Amino acid sequence: MNPSQLFNSFLEEGQILTDKALEQRYHHIWHMDEPLKALCVLLPKNTEQVSKIMKVCYQNDLPVVTHGGLTNLVGSTETIGNEVVISTERLNRIEEIDKASRTITVQSGVILENIHNATEEEGLLFPLNFGARGSAQIGGIVSTNAGGLRVLKYGMTRQLVLGLEAVTVEGTVISSMKKIIKDNSAYDLKQLFIGSEGTLGIITKVILKLEELPKSRNAAFIGFDNYDAVVTFLKYCDSKLAGKLSGFELIWKNSYVQMTSVNESVRPPLPYDYNYYVLIESLGGNQFNDQNEFQNLLEQALEEELILDAVMANSQSDVEWFFRIREDVNNLVDFMEHDQHFDISLPIPYIGSYIEERYNSLRKIKGVNQVYAFGHVADGNIHFMVGKSNLSTELKKRIDHCIYDGLQKIGGSVSAEHGIGLHKKDYLHLCRNEEEINLMRLLKTTMDPKGLLNPRKIL
Amino acid sequence: MNPSQLFNSFLEEGQILTDKALEQRYHHIWHMDEPLKALCVLLPKNTEQVSKIMKVCYQNDLPVVTHGGLTNLVGSTETIGNEVVISTERLNRIEEIDKASRTITVQSGVILENIHNATEEEGLLFPLNFGARGSAQIGGIVSTNAGGLRVLKYGMTRQLVLGLEAVTVEGTVISSMKKIIKDNSAYDLKQLFIGSEGTLGIITKVILKLEELPKSRNAAFIGFDNYDAVVTFLKYCDSKLAGKLSGFELIWKNSYVQMTSVNESVRPPLPYDYNYYVLIESLGGNQFNDQNEFQNLLEQALEEELILDAVMANSQSDVEWFFRIREDVNNLVDFMEHDQHFDISLPIPYIGSYIEERYNSLRKIKGVNQVYAFGHVADGNIHFMVGKSNLSTELKKRIDHCIYDGLQKIGGSVSAEHGIGLHKKDYLHLCRNEEEINLMRLLKTTMDPKGLLNPRKIL
User: Fold this and answer.
1) Cβ-based neighbours of B325, under 8 Å, separated by 6 or more
2) Of B160, B380, B171, B432, nearest in space to A187 by CA
3) A4-87 shares its CATH topology with A216-325
4) Please, what is the angle between helix A227-240 and helix A287-303, to 10°?
5) Is the N or C terminus of chain B more exposed, i.e. has fewer CB atoms within 10 Å?
6) Are B415 and A185 in contact (CB under 8 A)?
7) How many Cβ atoms are within 10 Å of B353's Cβ, its own excluded?
8) Per-domain residue ranges for chain B?
9) Chain A residues inside the 8 Å CB shell of B215
10) Distance from CA of B413 to the nearest CA of A (A)
């Protein structure tokens, strides 16, 4: 088949990539050297073109995989060769920033960092933020219900989407483009498309909720020797700082040592004397007042012996230094022969003991060289980086099972932020029961009866 | 048919109400004098019994209407006589409060006020709050995605539900009872049941997210002469108070005059000199500091001429006085011959002009005696109370159309908080397009192929 014949009545030549042009594409930014396997890549510019593409694909039984910024971590954008790839890169228009409604309306291919820059110019904040901000597109972000560093204060992506437009497998445009916060007029259809990884429809446009740009930012590193004290301090901070607490990141000692010993730009703010290190952040309305409040909180917590040690950022460059330590995971991964990442969720009270047990078990596995844990403890979300000596499937599975197997019993999840995609399918049953999975299949069959949307993913 | 024969193998005698016992029931707390029309009322005590009831109803093609606290405002609990009514009143167990996870696990029949009392004893807050808190049950609250007074700071019900258990029309228990904030393991099934008014399944249990109990509460009434100044001040407050701003309620002058002239307990905090009155509230971590901050904010706003006048609550009894004015809508309704209520949502920039136009048009309708507007302006949610001289359908429809017809053009909603139920069905097409409604029908047919769950409601 020459796919261009199917689409060239409504797409221009440069919007249909095949052959050589196709080979220069890839399925993930970490696999740029592997040419993309696909029938063609289509570059629609507007919703109408996406709709027409889907009508053709539906009529011709062509599987479709949507490509955004290709930063997904669970293989959600992988292809095997028989698919039409729809890239959202030309759906890159910021349509409107409404300062009074505090909303931004964007096509799904707009890059997160461009949303940040555009809103900040208007004194507004789109609070979602994570490492891949320079590549990740909002369509993919919404499709995976991304989390990141400030979920504690502002919520996951799901909480930040007011309006949404998506195209169904048959090419119908479902447009729910509202700017309103409250809308209980029947079923909230956008919830179907948020977090379903392109398996129920293709997101073409969203209206996002913005916040006032914070006028203050404060941060501190704090040392603890036991996990229960960490939880007590989380509640203490949340109570004292009311709605200002925006980050509460926990780093296990060995991760902290590694994260702060690579070079001078990540030198340790606190000595290596503690078992747990917490990075807290507050965002508020007045730098002078908030800094005083933050400092008083730390002094009082020291006095009350809630914490063992604390160092506060004295300047914005200190704040950046502190966050560089937490954010630059390359400082962990660069020294590994091979690496395997995890993104699990579990109830806060279990985190201390669960992670300790995993550390102990992982270290007994032959081939495991390093284990680093850290995470958004206030959200119950812990990331693991495991360094290993080889890429064998057997070793990979042993490590997977070691981390995942205990989650079912304590009501955890094998995916807090990253989704299921291809790579976590085998473990989905550990956190979703048979009845849930059956209902998911029913939804999938209903919305995509031919199974054309992002095939093989999730279920 | 004698329905007791269908259910008495697994329900005790007192759990099946028919005949005389049935006649003492009603479909809404405002219609206690109208005996309930139904085949029977069933009072299950646990999820298993709900599941068994649904299996029997499904096999016998019996329609089912779920009754919670019967405070719904759109006819969602009405019956015509051929239905089995499942009342959740005996599903009234608070199963657990987990202080470290900051969650409460409850059966769906627990009354909101009981959740408030139980969590406050543990130093925690379930932030959802509204007038019917003494009757409304959490199952109904989740089924209608209730809003209320503190959505600005804490979100709608949807944002407060972490885990959910529901029974499908066939009796299958979909149990997603997780305490975790982040869970991107495939489709988020609870979103289907939240806000779908019992038409897709019956909620039997939920896990709710709790917050630290605020240590400070401050409030003020503020006067404005034009709507744009209100919006500017909203942004100003939200920026200065960062995450502490918890309420921003707008009251139109004539509503304010009426609300504050009924008796001494609701005497006016500000004179009747302004066009708009705003009641703001902040919740924080330290009463002394927060009160100072709040007072400084008001003084600075007066100095910068952002506001015309302000009076701050000097004590918690002042705060209660201020909120009594806003909350006691009986002070508006009691003086009406007949009344008609509205709960619309619209983008914030349009509110001023839209409401003014509605005031003008409504006052021209013969039979309309009073028009009062007020609402959660920060959420774009305005309530109307319209007083009228008769109960004719013609007058009702004229008033409905006057308020609803302009919403489509500006991207509003005919239901911000209350849902669609029976009473707003005719206007759903004004805020949801054909494609959306078709997709809703598809979901309904998929989840409830025989149309047994809360028939005639929503669609």
Assistant:
1) B251, B256, B259, B260, B266, B268, B269, B279
2) B432
3) no
4) 140
5) N
6) yes
7) 11
8) 4-87, 94-212, 216-327, 330-442
9) 239
10) 6
Dig out the tokens for B448 from the structure. Answer: 């409830």
Q: Which of B184, B213, B242 sits opposite A195 (nearest CB)?
A: B184
Q: How do residues B396-449 score in pLDDT, each as one tens digit?
A: 999 999 999 999 999 999 999 999 999 999 999 999 999 999 999 999 999 999
Taking the C-alpha atoms of residue A400 and residue B172, their distance in angstroms, rounded to an integer, is 31
Shortest Cα distance, chain A CAs vs residue B14, angstroms: 31
Separation between Cα atoms, residue B309 and residue B421, nearest integer Å: 41
Burial of A356 (0-12, 13-18, 19+ CB in 10 A): middle
Tens digits of per-residue pLDDT, A409-422? 999 999 999 999 99
Quote the pLDDT of residue B352.
97
Q: Which tokens in the block code for residue B23? A: 């006649």
Asked if B104 contacts B118 with a C-beta cutoff of 8 angstroms, the reply is yes
The residues with which A164 forms a beta bridge, in sequence order, are A176, A206
Q: What is the mean pLDDT of residues B365-392?
A: 96
The CATH architecture of the domain made up of A4-87 is: 2-Layer Sandwich (3.30)
CA dihedral over A66, A69, A72, A75, signed as positive or negative: positive
- β-bridge pairing A124-125 and B338-345: unpaired
What is the rounded distance in angstroms from the CA atom of residue A339 to the CA atom of residue A215? 39
Mutate to test the interface with A, among B48, B165, B182, B232 (most CBs of A within 10 A): B182
Please report which confidence band the pLDDT of residue B2 belongs to, taking 50, 70 and 90 as the band edges: confident
Architecture of domain B94-212: 2-Layer Sandwich (3.30)
A330-419: CATH topology is Alpha-Beta Plaits (3.30.70)
Using a CB-CB cut-off of 8 Å, the residues of chain B touching A175 are: 433, 435-436
CATH topology for the B216-327 domain? Alpha-Beta Plaits (3.30.70)
Place of tokens 């998929």: B446
CB burial of residue B366 (10 Å; 0-12, 13-18, 19+): exposed
Q: What is the C-alpha separation between B123 and A232, in angstroms, rounded? A: 13
Residue B276: beta bridge partners?
Answer: B224, B252
Per-residue DSSP letter, B89: T
The DSSP secondary structure of A182-230, one letter per residue, reads ---SS--THHHHTTSTTSS-EEEEEEEE-EEPPSEEEEEEEEESSHHHH
The class level of CATH for A216-325 reads: alpha beta
Task: Out of B175, B215, B433, name the one closest to residue A433 (CB).
Answer: B175
Which tokens in the block code for residue A97?
Answer: 């920033």
Return the bridge partners of B264, or none.
Answer: none
Taking an 8 Å cut-off on Cβ atoms, the answer to whether A195 and B188 are in contact is yes
Q: Identity (one letter) of the amino acid at A18? A: T
Which positions ≥6 away from B211 have C-beta within 8 Å?
A238, B102, B124, B125, B126, B127, B154
Q: Which of A76, A150, A181, A296 to mutate to test the interface with B (most CBs of B within 10 A)?
A: A181
Nearest in space to B218 (alpha carbons), one of B323, B309, B128: B323
pLDDT at A1 over 70: no
Q: In angstroms, rounded to a whole number, what is the distance separating the alpha carbons of residues B319 and B105?
A: 31
- The residue type of B182 is K
From the CB of residue B75, how many other CB atoms can be counted at a distance below 10 Å?
17
**Residue A335 and residue A339: Cα distance in Å, rounded?**
9
- Cα–Cα distance, A126 to A149 (Å, whole number): 12
Q: Residue B453 corresponds to which amino acid?
A: L
Furthest C-alpha separation in chain A: 74
B330-442: CATH architecture = 2-Layer Sandwich (3.30)
**In terms of Cα–Cα distance, which of A276, A418, A409 is closest to A350?**
A409
Q: Which residues pair with B125 in a beta bridge?
A: B211
User: Any idea what DSSP says for residue A284?
Assistant: E
Q: Which amino acid is at A202?
A: I
